[in-house]
């Protein structure tokens, strides 16, 4: 179970480095080849759907000073050391203002490494 904790920590650290560099390549190394993400909030009718090739650099460029952290509240091992369902709260602090979101991630072993297969992110506000 330590491997999933380590990969989650490293993944969010890669986001923080990317906020500074405005380069998303390191983040993409965590995505599965079949990665799909869903992002929404209460003001959108349908969540935005994106894949591993979405324009991370444009997204990163929209942020000034930003940091991202994640507080897991549930990690379920679905296949022994092969797949994990992770739920928790992601907090993006942008220019000093926190933006919490509830998240669900599916991490799956791919070529010997855990890769992010799916993410579901719903902003709280």
Outline of this structure?
This protein has 125 residues and is of the alpha+beta class. It is built from 3 helices and 6 strands, in the order ααββαββββ.
Topology:
Blueprint: H1 2-21, H2 25-28, E1 31-40, E2 48-51, H3 56-61, E3 66-79, E4 83-94, E5 97-110, E6 113-123
Parallel strand pairs: 1-6
Antiparallel strand pairs: 1-2, 3-4, 4-5, 5-6
How would you sum up this structure, described in words?
The protein has 125 residues and is of the alpha+beta class. The protein is built from three helices and six strands, in the order H-H-E-E-H-E-E-E-E. A six-stranded mixed β-sheet has the order 2-1-6-5-4-3, with helices on one face. A hairpin with a 2-residue loop joins strand 4 and strand 5. The chain is globular, with a radius of gyration of 14 Å. The mean pLDDT is 94.
Rg for CA atoms: 14 Å
Task: Write down the overall mean pLDDT.
Answer: 94
User: What level of helicity do the residues show?
Assistant: 10-25%
Give the overall shape, derived from the CA principal axes.
globular
The number of distinct helices, counting runs of at least 4 residues, comes to: 3
Q: What order do the helices and strands follow?
A: HHEEHEEEE
CA-CA gap between termini: 32 Å
Name the poorly predicted regions. none
Give the amount of beta strand, in percent: over 45%
Main sheet summary: 6 strands, mixed
Q: Class by helix and strand content?
A: alpha+beta
Kindly state the number of beta strands: 6
Oligomer: single chain
Strand numbers in spatial order across the main sheet: 2-1-6-5-4-3
